[in-house]
Design brief:
By secondary structure, the chain is of the alpha/beta class. It contains 19 helices and twelve strands. The longest helix is centred in the last third of the chain and has 33 residues. It is globular and about 60 Å long.
Length: 494
């Protein structure tokens, strides 16, 4: 009885000690030392980067360190309430893998690979804005939505089948989702053992919603900005930036940690990694993290001219890593930070994800608008999430990922900076579709598949970028492995 009491008490004592700044700083100091040892030196297999080149393992460490430091900053500056911190701490403590027999281990025993780490859901196409170049073509006229029963079942299966407790919600505008009176807040309440990251335009977040988010404790927003007021309003509409600033204020008042989400284009690429931008959003506004999704010519009003030039991508690659390593700010680019996770995360690969949209279509990623299966139809046939995960379409994508990265030794791995099949390896896309039943899920995707100029344009762009990124990858990541004679045999463990 006394041992049980201690086992219940000790995690809470550790949590309360972290709220005391001097103790927290000391604990984090030793934690950072341990993380470096585990990720870089010991190559702990629990980290996806364990068989990557040393510099890629260091990249993983620096991003992890930035995330740890942002917790300290948030607590020191009262950007996260003690209640929110306690809820987050308890969530992480409860769902770190402990038991030998877990959904993750059962999945590995059955399928010989690790399950996806997360799931992305777009439950509604409805949006109160109509932004230029929207990848999902959302607007006030597009009212398709996923039934709440299916929405909740997906999250339930994600935990049961994969042992995954992180769900990303995007859209459309997630805070407009409503099915029979059920909203995303009801979903978070129904699944208190899942953490939800919500990508939102932020215009609907008021004091009431912020208070609800604080009470739930398992949901955090990432709010879209395009730069400062001028750049944000140009793409999103007049007065939108001021609404975002009000949302920031409501979230800070309630002690809800939040982040920003940014779409770099040829027009704003230099601005969004400038010191002025970083100081404004991370210091003045109080953002805890930032997520970069480089513009791709998919969705509404596809425009090649909005894509960053290859040279701009490389400049952003350098600047982003400088911010992460030197300022310890978790401003994470899903392309330029590909070395952390092994490049492309699509198709439900181990440590990766897949995406389900408002009509139930299951796509390899949020930006890859093709599907071979629909989750509503799968459920009618008695299937589950694994029925999609092991579809020929997704298996072909994972086979390419393995051939390019995971089945190669560290000194010969493919360029993780040029990691996106859509933009950097576009010529392989038809290979994924052939014989798998993959189809376009919207008119824009259908046109792009048939448009020779589009295909050739993306293929040419990818070749030009790989010429530049390949020099960095070979010199800074692979050459040290070859020089040391390490990493020449054996692939990574999936």
């Amino acid at each position: 009885m006394f041992r049980k009491f201690l086992n219940n008490l000790l995690p809470k004592l550790k949590r309360e000690i972290l709220l005391i700044r001097p103790f927290r700083r000391l604990i984090f100091y030793f934690l950072e030392k341990k993380l470096y040892q585990d990720i870089v030196e010991k190559k702990d297999p629990n980290w996806v980067s364990h068989n990557f080149p040393r510099k890629a393992r260091e990249d993983n460490f620096f991003i992890t360190l930035a995330l740890v430091r942002t917790v300290d900053r948030a607590l020191s500056r009262n950007l996260i309430s003690k209640r929110a911190f306690r809820q987050t701490y308890d969530f992480v403590a409860a769902h770190l893998p402990k038991e030998k027999e877990s959904p993750k281990s059962s999945f590995f025993k059955k399928y010989g690979m690790k399950p996806p780490a997360l799931l992305a859901l777009s439950p509604t196409k409805l949006c109160n804005l109509k932004c230029l170049g929207c990848y999902s073509d959302s607007s006030a006229q597009n009212r398709q939505k996923l039934p709440f029963e299916i929405f909740s079942r997906i999250v339930r299966e994600q935990k049961k089948l994969w042992g995954s407790h992180l769900t990303v919600i995007t859209g459309g505008e997630p805070f407009l989702y409503n099915d029979g009176g059920k909203t995303i807040l009801d979903l978070a309440a129904e699944h208190p053992d899942t953490f939800f990251l919500v990508y939102t335009n932020g215009t609907l977040i008021d004091e009431k919603i912020a208070g609800n988010l604080a009470s739930l404790g398992n949901i955090t927003p990432a709010i879209s900005v395009e730069g400062f007021e001028k750049e944000t309003d140009e793409r999103r509409g007049s007065g939108i930036h001021q609404k975002i600033i009000r949302a920031f204020g409501c979230l800070k008042k309630s002690g809800v940690p939040f982040g920003i989400s940014v779409t770099p284009t040829r027009k704003n690429a230099e601005l969004i990694t400038s010191g002025e931008f970083i100081d404004y959003y991370f210091e003045k506004c109080g953002a805890a993290n930032g997520w970069i999704f480089q513009y791709l010519p998919v969705g509404r009003d596809c425009d090649f001219d909005l894509m960053m030039a290859p040279e701009q991508r490389i400049a952003m690659f350098r600047k982003t890593w400088s911010l992460i390593k030197e300022r310890k700010i978790p401003f994470i680019d899903f392309w330029n930070c590909g070395s952390v996770i092994g490049g492309c995360m699509a198709g439900g690969r181990p440590h990766g994800y897949m995406h389900i949209e408002w009509n139930g279509n299951v796509t390899p990623c949020v930006f890859y608008n093709y599907a071979s299966q629909n989750i509503a139809e799968i459920y009618k046939q008695g299937g589950d999430l694994n029925s999609v995960l092991f579809s020929p379409f997704f298996e072909k994508i994972r086979q390419w990922q393995n051939d390019y990265i995971f089945d190669k030794p560290a000194g010969k791995m493919g360029d993780m900076i040029a990691c996106c099949p859509i933009r950097d390896h576009h010529k392989i896309i038809p290979r994924f579709h052939e014989g798998t039943g993959a189809r376009a899920i919207n008119e824009s995707a259908g046109k792009n598949l048939e448009d020779e100029d589009f295909r050739e344009g993306l293929a040419g762009y990818g070749e030009k970028f790989k010429t530049i990124s390949g020099e960095i990858w070979n010199k800074e990541y692979l050459a040290p492995e070859r020089k040391s004679g390490l990493g020449q045999n054996g692939g990574a463990d999936n």
